[in-house]
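Field notebook, page 337. I keep forgetting to write these up properly, so this time I am using the form the group agreed on. The chain and the ligand, NAP, are recorded exactly as supplied. Prediction of the bound pose follows.
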Amino acid sequence: MRVAAFTGTDGPDDVAVQEQPDPTPAAGEAVIEVAACSINHHDLWILEGDSGMVGTDELPFVSGLDVAGEVAATGPDVDSVASGDRVLLCPNETCGTCRYCREGPENRCEQYSLYHGGLAEQALVDADRLVALPESVDFTDAAALPTAYMTAYHMLRRTDVGANDLVFIPGATGGVGVAGVQLVDALGARSIGTTTSATKADRLADIGADHVVESGAIDEIRAAVDEIGEPDAVLNHLGGDYTQLGLALLRQGGRMAICGRTAGDRSTIEIPQLYLGHNQLIGSTMGTQPDLETLVDLTAAGAIDPVVNDEYALDETGQAFADMQRRDAFGKLVVQP
Ligand SMILES: NC(=O)c1ccc[n+]([C@@H]2O[C@H](COP(=O)([O-])OP(=O)(O)OC[C@H]3O[C@@H](n4cnc5c(N)ncnc54)[C@H](OP(=O)(O)O)[C@@H]3O)[C@@H](O)[C@H]2O)c1
Ligand SMILES: [Zn+2]
């Protein structure tokens, strides 16, 4: 089979299509004929040699978490899926025995890791991690859901966002950002999204952002949000200075979930603002398989319509990463092997 492999860690030029042996499923496993695999900033961190989660000692490395397609073969003892089934992979990998695997939520597993290998014609996966896809959800839309939408949805759950709440989403135009805006809308809450691009600002309004702030300057964003109102919650995937900004903006008792660090690993926070404001800072990573099942149901019901910026053939995978790196995209980028 053909795979799009990372052959180095100098960025998008280090993606090459290579031949690898077709996988054979062992007990509990299934092989998926990959119809679509979306890419995430997580893959780009690996390709840039800057992932906090995945080392690249062993190159070539085949990344790609968000796999949708048809089951091509199953190993012994697999009866949850059969050849020909339409499925979406939940990329969580968990130990199954720690207290969080037993009590939940599973994404806090003490051995938590992620599936990689979807940027290929076939993917060898754990059959228990496959979610059934109804005919009404196409593979490309489905592949947008796992990492970006599942993470945003889990952050909204952890920050207790309810109807009419005001949610601040800095950097609202990428995978997690667009998912956040759409899910906030679906919950009957209101969003404030930011972007540095005029073109992307227009698209944010089109997908249901209630307020759009076109700026990358912390002081300017702070002044603009002050005019709109005090957020009940912040979805922060940028980290860096956006962390203190989010804390400064939150209402008394407001909550900020943090899942990323695109704008920097560190932030200096005003500690009195945290305790006098009775605020919560919540670290959050990915979500649970039931979260993903909910998102498939919401998509099938038309409550959310995943935003796919562009589709790429397997040999255009490097181009997809270059587009992400240049901040050209709005929403998700999907490779169709
Ligand atoms: N912990 C987890 O489970 C988890 C899950 C998913 C994602 N993440 C993390 O969350 C982040 C977002 O992931 P993603 O896949 O959604 O990425 P993405 O699609 O590349 O995100 C693009 C968004 O980030 C903004 N942005 C990019 N660089 C920026 C910078 N230097 N300063 C300010 N804004 C910047 C862009 O703003 P413009 O519109 O201005 O271009 C755009 O809105 C990544 O750090 C990723 O690793 C973590
Ligand atoms: Zn575990």
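OBSERVATIONS:
- The CA atoms of residues 100 and 109 lie 5 Å apart.
- The first strand starts at residue 2 and ends at 6.
FOLLOW-UP: compare against the apo run.
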